[in-house]
Amino acid sequence: MKEKIKSAKVLCVGAGGIGCELLKTLVLSGFEDIELIDMDTIETSNLNRQFLFRRKHVGESKAKVAADSVRAFRPNAKIVAHQGNVKESKFDKEFFQKFLLVLNGLDNVEARRHVNRLCLSAGIPLIESGTEGYLGQVTVHYRLKNAAGEATHVTECFECAPKQSRNKTYPVCTIRNTPDKPIHCIVWAKELLFARLFGRPDQVTDLDENKNKEGEGDGKEEGPSVFLRQDGESADAYAARIFKRVFTEDIENVLKMEDLWKNRDPPTPLRLDSILGQSSSAASDTHGAASNGTAAAHSNGGLQAAGDSACKALGLTDSHRVWNLRENAQVFLESIRQFLEGRPGEVGEAVFDKEDDLAVEFVTAASNLRAAAYGIPQQSLFNAKGIAGNIIHAIATTNAIVGGLIVIEAMKLLAGAPEHSKATFILKHITNPKMKRLLNAVSPGEPSPKCAACGTARLELVIDTHTTSLGQLIDKVLKKRLSLVEPTVRTDGGFEYEEGEGLDEDEVEANRGRLPLMLDALPGGGLGHGMTAHVEDQVQEFKVAIEITHKDDWDEEAHPEGFILGGSVPPSAPTANGDTSVAAGPSAPAAVSDGDDDDLIIVEAPTLAQQQRDAKGKQKRENEDEEAPRKRQRAVQQSDNVIELD
Amino acid sequence: MSGVAQQRLQQERKAWRKDHPFGFVAKPRTLPDGSVDMLHWDCRIPGKANTIWEGGVYPLELKFSSDYPSNPPIAMVCLSIINPDQGWRPSVTVKQILMGISELLNNPNNSDPAQTYGYEVFRKDKAKYARLVKEQARKYSDEKYSTL
């Protein structure tokens, strides 16, 4: 076993929070042959948990520094660092096939999917992980085969089970009229108000609708420019006008919808002059408000319109303290002013960025003012930033546990004991008081026949993508060879071709116009070498992914058709339960379908339990899905191999 | 894009082509370069016959996220079945959403209004409401709205 570990060549994807812990645990467990990919450079905010990095490393490649730091205490380890994006084409199937195992410590779903698909295609087991605050999970994904090529152990792939997202959407009416939680106010400030004031003017947000679409005749009509700065309007006057519009007039308007407030507490309109504590009678639409309150003191400073921070200008340094109403109003006005005067170039095309102090200050102040109007608790800058930016603070201990679990799963696979593989979830609370367990380990799920990544049959098509048109592909390959009737062809780049039933005349026309295009010149990046065509049929139950390989020299005698189709062509009968994997690599494209069904795997329908293998079980609880509690219970029953923590 | 969202939208598209209510349109948006944005559907809902909405064909955008169908699509309409806190279920189809909105046009939900003005007129002056709606119906019977 020691030898196996020592000689095992493994790939670590990601050298961040999990990556550092994983790399350390790997080398201390005896792994010596490791390659490491990470595209990022080290930032100061990483240093509290990514312990292979020191302050002096800030700005350097994570992969390289991590490799150097580990070499310092394990000189025997052979660690190759790649600074790059795992999606780059140099990290292709052949690259992945050099490894015995792939270990993921990634921070985004896109890259995880990409690695999952490469591992599927290269046939390399993947140990996948993730953490989110106190929560985390390690899952194992593989299709192991014996010497005869028969599948012996198969798990679900990373994409088989839908991932519960923590990005919640909120109904438009709640955000616009009846917020009752801080998050509703923050979404309003960030998605509606910020976008309206500083984003692209053609981006109509729901804010406008209150007045613009109501029709004519009442003299209430307003141009779409209410939220734009008027010619000659000072930044302060503009800020005061916006304040009045959104916190006074809009609230008054909403109050008129009496039915809304039958069972709710009605909001209270805010008045800028009373908040700022001066009863200037001039505080109406125009320059009156500009001379009001302390905002004016700063605006006259002129030099401070740096456009970087309203808090700095106002001396609000404690980001954990909740501002009072007056401070919120001041930050609101000052941040608008700084935006207009400090960064005039960005107004009209700004996008909210959680790292942009001024944007976060604006959103905090605006959401707190709205919260004040609606009697909702207000947030400190720090909290509002966390909510607005969907930030969950990383916890080093969770990463360390996950790193250790990855190594344990890796060892099980090296020991030839895949039957002991577990998907392990780190829980935040002890859910079952009798068990006192924070780690919930369950058997890996079974693959879903409906999975887009591993459940669809895959074929390999070698063809000249420069000289073959879409029409030829459809006629020769899809209709003649694969017996499709009304094919739909899609690419990952967003190209789509449809024919057959249920299309309007203009759609038929548009699709027909695409037929003469050459494959590599199709819209959305083409269908060239290395790309995948997703093909289904409108009238048949048929679905297949075709991987395209380009070849330009064709020997007409050897291949009179001008293409080579490799892999197991699925039967044209319904294939809902069939799962065909392709044996042919690029080196063996001649393996045309010949009824060789060795690699046909029949899988059963997925179990319910499979769907709960999702670390974010907490979301499930809030989910309206009534089945969730049952699923959770099932998962707990399955946890026959749980590690006790206390 | 999420494989799940992509797949589900392809299913929705296939089902819609097989069977959809007369006069309704729902299709993924084609971008200027000829590629298709599966997350962004342009829909049209015809006003029901024998109602003040008759004659109009009302455009609606459905914006799907990569979390679909865990999360509902976003539309500028307040409708319980696309409200994640109320009636949304991942099994709700595009067809059901559009039929629901069509129904809502003639039976507005007064306890959850979306627009101040429309709400006020509807409550206080039904005749004026009918007149305004008919104006809208005329506006949206225009060629430029009824063909994409």
From TrEMBL, chain A:
Classification via SUPFAM superfamilies: Activating enzymes of the ubiquitin-like proteins
Keywords, ordered alphabetically: ATP-binding, Metal-binding, Nucleotide-binding, Ubl conjugation pathway, Zinc
UniProt domain THIF-type NAD/FAD binding fold: residue ranges: 3-451
Protein's pathway: Protein modification; protein sumoylation
Ranges of compositional bias, category Basic and acidic residues: 208-223, 613-623
Bias type Polar residues, positions: 281-294, 635-646
Residues annotated as domain Ubiquitin/SUMO-activating enzyme ubiquitin-like: 461-554
Transmembrane segments: none
Active site feature: 173 (glycyl thioester intermediate)
Location of the Ubiquitin-activating enzyme SCCH domain: 345-385
Chain intervals for the UniProt region annotation (Disordered): 205-226, 281-302, 558-646
Domain of life the protein comes from: Eukaryota
Compositional bias ranges of the Low complexity kind: 581-593
The family this protein is said to belong to: Belongs to the ubiquitin-activating E1 family.
Quaternary structure, from the entry: Heterodimer.
Protein's name in the database: SUMO-activating enzyme subunit
Organism listed in the record: Coccomyxa subellipsoidea
From TrEMBL, chain B:
SUPFAM superfamilies with a match to the protein in the record: UBC-like
Name this protein carries in UniProt: UBC core domain-containing protein
InterPro entries: Ub_conjugating_enzyme, UBC, UBQ-conjugating_enzyme/RWD
PANTHER family xrefs: UBIQUITIN-CONJUGATING ENZYME E2
Stored SMART domains: UBCc
Organism listed in the record: Coccomyxa subellipsoidea
Top-rank lineage group of the source organism: Eukaryota
Domain UBC core: 4-142
